[in-house]
Structures are given as C-alpha cells and as structure tokens.
Amino acid sequence: MIGEVDIYGLFLPPLLVLAVLAWAVSALLRRGLRAVGAYGWVWHPPLFDFALYVLVLSGLAGLWSVWAS
Fold first, then answer.
1. In whole angstroms, what is the distance from residue 34 CA to residue 58 CA?
2. For residue 60, what are the CA distances in angstroms to 9, 18, 27, 34, 55?
3. Whole-number average pLDDT of the chain
4. Distances in Å between the alpha carbon of 28 and those of 2, 5, 10, 11?
5. Are 57 and 24 in contact (CB under 8 A)?
6. How does pLDDT run across 22-39, given as a tens digit for each residue?
7. Cα diameter, the chain
8. Is the dihedral of CA 17, 13, 45, 63 positive or negative?
9. Contact criterion met (CB below 8 Å) for 53 and 21
10. What pLDDT band is residue 4 in, cutting at 50, 70 and 90?
11. What is residue 43's DSSP assignment?
12. Using CA atoms, how far apart are residues 42 and 63, in angstroms rounded to an integer?
C-alpha cells in the first residue's frame, strides 16, 4: 500500500480509509448475525467481534492490494 487517498484535498493513508470501511462492514455483519441468532453459538462476543473486524480489514486490504497493482 503505497501512496495516499485524496478525499477533497485531504490526503489519508489507505489503511485508515480501509479501517473505517471495515468498521462499517463489520457493524453491518454483527447486526445481521445478531438478528439471525448466531451469537448464541459464540463463547465470547467481544472477541468474536474483534476477530470479525480483523478478518474484514484483512480482506479489504487484500482486495485493495490487488486493485492498486
């Protein structure tokens, strides 16, 4: 990930943009999983939420690296 993302003249590191996007995506996934009752199978919900966020962030970073190259 080299370079910056230009948002109306504000240069941001790509990881910051991906982190905010991953937070939004994981929030939607958490809401969906809670609605279906999947959290009944989860031993430690905050740990699961963190792991879900890390997985989404790494997936987005992988997609970004493929798209940017």
1. 22
2. 23, 7, 15, 23, 9
3. 92
4. 29, 24, 27, 27
5. no
6. 999 999 999 999 999 999
7. 46
8. positive
9. no
10. confident
11. S
12. 28
Q: Where does the pLDDT of residue 2 fall: very low under 50, low under 70, confident under 90, or very high at 90 and above?
A: low
8 A C-beta contact, residue 14 and residue 3: yes
Burial class of 49 by CB neighbour count within 10 A (0 to 12, 13 to 18, 19+): middle
Token pair recorded at residue 1: 């990930």
Cα–chain center distance at 9: 24
Query: 19: which 2 tokens?
Result: 């982190």
How far from 32 is each of 14, 38, 50, 55, 59, CA to CA, in Å?
27, 9, 16, 16, 19
